[in-house]
Amino acid sequence: MIEVEIKLPLFRRSITERALTDCGFKAGNLVKESDFYFTSDFHDFMKTDEALRIRTCENFTTRETTSFLTYKGAKLDTVSTTRKELETRIEDSDIAREILISLGYKKLYPVTKLRQYYHKGRMTACVDQVESLGSFLELEILVDSPEQKESALQSIEALLLDMGSSLKETTRKSYLSMLLSKGSPD
Questions:
Q1: Pfam families from the entry (predicted)?
Q2: Would residue 37 show up in a list of annotated catalytic residues for this protein?
């Protein structure tokens, strides 16, 4: 699976949420996502532009808590954060974390955000409030093959233009990279 995605810093969250609704998006779940990223001496995910994480989701809409192990490949272009993504649900995030640490992986800075999901067709919009960083809009479409990537990116760009923004205003930096550049509290 390939995740075609952009990330836009937000200065007026309520205006963005209204614009999404005006464009036909329906509000979905409100979720607190706690991400723990990993690296190692034998595979430095930061240097290879990859990511290995365990995410725990506290869904305030359904009152469920779920966890996932995710691998994200290197970015596939220079305008978005499009990359291969492999994800599987895990039963116990604490045990999974201990397994990775026992195998020689090291935990990096945690990323915690409150995420409001919006949906329209095959596109998902996430309005995020990221601890220590502020608000962001992520737009994503999942595709099965690299051949579908450009069409998905064009759909995302069209929505951005409808909302009064452009790809030039987006960032390719991950939340983890932004937090690390601010300085880890460790």
A1: CYTH (PF01928)
A2: yes
